[in-house]
Each structure stands twice: as C-alpha cells, then as structure tokens.
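pinned: reference chain
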Amino acid sequence: MKFINAILFGTLFIFLTSCTGGNKPHASKEYLQEMDAWRAKRIKNLKSETGWLNLVGLNWLKEGENTFGSGKNNDIIFPEDTPEQIGTFVLKNGKVTVNINQNVDVEINGKKITTSELENDLHGKPTVLSWKNYRWFIIKRADRFGVRLRNLEAKLVKEFKGIESYPVDEKWKVPAIFVRYKTPKLLEIPTIIGTIEEDTAKGYLQFELEGNQFTLDPIDSGDKFFIIFADKTSGKETYGGGRFLYVPKPDSSGKTVIDFNKAYNPPCAFTKYATCPLPPKDNYLKIAITAGEKNYGEH
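pinned: its structure tokens
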C-alpha cells in the first residue's frame, strides 16, 4: 500500500525503557542485543531528515492557485522565519505545479527553480523543495492534495529522548499460522483524517495468547507482512490509534512468528501533521498486549 509506504521506520536501552520500574527483562542476552539494535535504528529513522519528528506543517490545497509564505495573507502560511511571499502552488486536474517568486532561492535537488510540476508521495518519491533548513513536498490522500512541511532544526528533533516501552519479554514472540482466505478479503482502513483506504488480505494470522485464540489480518508489504492493530492498552498506556508491526512472511508450512516486542507507534503519536491509517475492524485484539512501544507525550 503506497500511502502506508509513504508512512514507513538511543542505542542506549535505558532511554527507551526509562519507566519500566527496573524490572529485569525475560529475554536472552542475544535477543536483548537484537532489540537494542532494532530500537537504535528506529530512533535514527525518526530523527532523520525524512523522519517524523521534524514535521511542522500540513496544509490542504484548493483547486487553482494557492499562495504560500510567512505573510498572513497567504493561502498557506509558512513559519515566521521564511520569506513573506515564496510563491504559488497551482492544483489543476490532479496535478500540482509550483511557481517561485524571483527574489526567493528555492531549490530542487540543489538547483534553484522558478517553476516545476511536482510529483506527490504516492508516486514513490515526491519532489522535495528546499529553502535553508525547510523542506516541503506534496502528499495525496484519496482525492486531496496537501503540502507537508519539514524543519530540519525542529525543536522535537533536538529534544527527543526516546520512547517509553514495555520491558522486553520473549513470551511476546508468538508462533502464528497463516491461513489463506478462499478469496482475498477486502480491508477498509480508516485514517485519522477521516478518509477510507482499501487493501486486501490474502489470509489471516492465527495465534494463541493466555490460552485464547486470536487472529490478525495482515497486509502484504514485499518480503514481510504489515499489521495495524489495537488492543486493550490502546488509548491507555499505548497510542489510542493503535500500533504498527511487521511480521516475517510464513515458511512453506505456513508458520511464522509475531514479535509484539517490536510493535511501534504510528507517526501520529508524535505529530499532528501525519495522516495515519487506523486498525481495520477485525484487528482489535481483546487482550492487553503489554509489549512494544508505549504512548509518546500527549498525542
């Protein structure tokens, strides 16, 4: 799913489990090292130029011309330390073109531009415009086009200390069986902005926890399955909009392992400028998954 891909991912363990009460993890040394590496990569991705911590704006375009800059009379208002009148976005027939004012040095791939047609994020790699420490590009959600703005010097990036997580416990590495549907199941996936995305599940993952059987509908994501799920911790200890998880594709006998220790927050747990998918209706687990990342801040 492209919009989810548009979604896609310190080393010090204490930063990431700072509120676990000092409980000793029930895991081997090797597995703890694996989790340290996984979490270090997770933090690195969040803080990177293309991560989620530097988002500072999301504005939806109207059909026709949309002026932008820091001036209060613009259709799209950028931060105060940007030029007052940067230029104009033109949305016409599903295409977005940008026109930059002559006195503003906006670049694409290091080259100053005056006008350019912009690829949106659903094309795989959007056209990124830059001015000093700011970056912006076009996203498409259903029939809406928006301007997503980054500040590479955003306060959240500088102040980020990590994500509180449950203690690592190998009991949450759960064996699962992939059971194919006779016909692929249509998944209606709501988003936090009120739209509905559609995908299909070719089968479901069946597993057991605390003596009870559960199932999850996964989405095909290349060499792995992608899962959006919620559980009894959602909206309490974990993010109310559910969490994400990748699972290895099953072997020839249909077996795989769901590692809930690697359940992680969607971007909307960190920023109001993301457009996250929410769990499909059959991915609400009637059990508390006390593994993986907890909620972040007040989101």
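why pinned: Residues 162-283 form one domain. The chain has two domains: 55-153, 162-283.
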